[in-house]
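Colleagues,

Please find the record for the twelve-part complex below.
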Amino acid sequence: MTDSVYKVVELVGTSANSWEDAARNAIETAGRSLRDLRIAEIKKLDMKVENGRVTAFRSRVQLSFKYFNE
Amino acid sequence: MTDSVYKVVELVGTSANSWEDAARNAIETAGRSLRDLRIAEIKKLDMKVENGRVTAFRSRVQLSFKYFNE
Amino acid sequence: MTDSVYKVVELVGTSANSWEDAARNAIETAGRSLRDLRIAEIKKLDMKVENGRVTAFRSRVQLSFKYFNE
Amino acid sequence: MTDSVYKVVELVGTSANSWEDAARNAIETAGRSLRDLRIAEIKKLDMKVENGRVTAFRSRVQLSFKYFNE
Amino acid sequence: MTDSVYKVVELVGTSANSWEDAARNAIETAGRSLRDLRIAEIKKLDMKVENGRVTAFRSRVQLSFKYFNE
Amino acid sequence: MTDSVYKVVELVGTSANSWEDAARNAIETAGRSLRDLRIAEIKKLDMKVENGRVTAFRSRVQLSFKYFNE
Amino acid sequence: MTDSVYKVVELVGTSANSWEDAARNAIETAGRSLRDLRIAEIKKLDMKVENGRVTAFRSRVQLSFKYFNE
Amino acid sequence: MTDSVYKVVELVGTSANSWEDAARNAIETAGRSLRDLRIAEIKKLDMKVENGRVTAFRSRVQLSFKYFNE
Amino acid sequence: MTDSVYKVVELVGTSANSWEDAARNAIETAGRSLRDLRIAEIKKLDMKVENGRVTAFRSRVQLSFKYFNE
Amino acid sequence: MTDSVYKVVELVGTSANSWEDAARNAIETAGRSLRDLRIAEIKKLDMKVENGRVTAFRSRVQLSFKYFNE
Amino acid sequence: MTDSVYKVVELVGTSANSWEDAARNAIETAGRSLRDLRIAEIKKLDMKVENGRVTAFRSRVQLSFKYFNE
Amino acid sequence: MTDSVYKVVELVGTSANSWEDAARNAIETAGRSLRDLRIAEIKKLDMKVENGRVTAFRSRVQLSFKYFNE
């Protein structure tokens, strides 16, 4: 039915290797609830830094879930 | 009590007819949880297109709900 | 004369039916002062909600008026 | 093939009745080139005004076309 | 583990005294779920007004929670 | 009547003590015209500085007034 | 007194020659009310075009006036 | 007919003298296709620099053309 | 000659591997028309998702082409 | 002389008490270099959180310094 | 070598005549450190006003310098 | 001490391989001054292009340094 309601959510995934892996982590963790999801947009990229070295890449991803009353 | 805490949520409603109906669908689906809601803002309008024709109007609506620890 | 000065103003119109009517209300209320106006831009769309139902659509419209010293 | 290149385009459609019709005009005029298009986003809504009355609604729509070298 | 997934949330706190107290209310209400939170950003400040007088300060705060499938 | 037209206005209030007082000054100066105002948003915070010291806090507040033709 | 309230206003000036003259026209038309104004910011630059030629430059300028109840 | 469709385009013009000339170059190069254009907005101003000296002013101008299927 | 006119274009490239490859695809497809291009800016990154898994990375790239009348 | 060149800088000040004190700390630390500074704008407000409690308020302040070649 | 690191800086130049001269002042004051600079973007234009008259044009210019540890 | 003052800085790093390496170059060049840095945000991604091919990826990174009077 075309009149479903969706909820927009932002998740932050993390990876030691790349922003691609960080985004994939966010999406695949949420994956079971995402059957209708077609597009996931990047809203922010950043890095964790310790002692002047990059230790992790983080991607903030905007997704939408089917909505059920909370 | 004036010190309640609210949670800001974005819902996407859909309608074959208009953005007004799409927004109304989003709000009225969420309606039971919205007793204190007074204003709902539009954050994005878009359309679904199939074979070069518009098949649905979608409204992304920003609402706030009373917050309970998750 | 091409050197007239204009003042940019934002008005909010309201309608129980649609954002188009809400915007038209804003413009036509201001109408008598708007002889030179050609374009009016939408800056925000929102809704009034009561008891979980949409009771009014509101359009914030940006217009320009001929300016006279205040 | 997943590696196609698309070009992002903004079109402005006009209607005497509603922003929905204005957007539909923009999309359906472009329709023959849009076989892969799934989503079209609204980037701006405005109105033409003559003698203090609204004479047309305009919707600026962002689409993407399959890209061929220009 | 560095690959946890977080969910970005916006809460609105209220106080009769100051935006600092309003923000603190939002954070401390959510506090039990926030063990890893280090930074909370202000996204919007506003006021409730009654009869032309300010009755409450409100702070919209962006936080992140550890994410569990919904 | 739900079809009133409002005008959006930005006022800047000033205080030697805090941004809360600066905002309150802006609103309460305008207060007599604000019977329907429920929410006033902060659009900008800044400070006046003299000889390297802060001498005043300023809050730019967005309000809406009932509109009468100008 | 430091607690005066100011009103933020946007004016559009026009000139056949340059955006500097267009902005100067906006400010100097408003000049008598602007005794405390120190800085005026440009918010938008555009041009009027007729038959494919530029006929005027326009500058939208943001100013602040001392506020008196309307 | 009010239902024409327009395409929004951004052109960058260049001039050794001023941003006004740079914008005029962009518009007048495109001029033959612009019979209905009334307003052209500036989207960005920048400069080319060589050996620490400004060698050209550039204006990015947003225009709209009548749209024909591509 | 410094007075050439350029057209700003946004292309979306896709890759199963990375946003770098997606962006490179967009640029190299357009390559023959890009002799003067020096810088290409990323405007948006997103992903295609199918059955809760990332199937492609997409990069929206802003480029400029030498302009010829359309 | 009106042709001095200034450098725009953003500083982050911290306080356990309020955003006003945090901003004042940033400005007064920089004070000796700020003889011509008249206005300092807030660009961001946030908080440090430890164990679900606010431990510090932080204000990011935009200032300008007289510029000397680096 | 392609792996140099640059620092982004914003300078404000001033001129009694035009925003072009104001921007040129900012760049040419910084010129000796700018050997690799190719493009300088305008981030803000404003004016100083005294007694209701424009006394100076100011351009805020974004540049990049080769970076050395501070 | 919680009342230290920080300076926000944007650096641009470059790499022939990826935006991750470009960002890492920016941060690790600055590393010795960054002992307290925890998070570095990406503000812009772009590419250098020569003869229609990508020759370098560039990441603009926002960092903060402990501030000492300049």
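Chain D has one helix and three strands.

Comments are welcome before we finalize the supplementary table.
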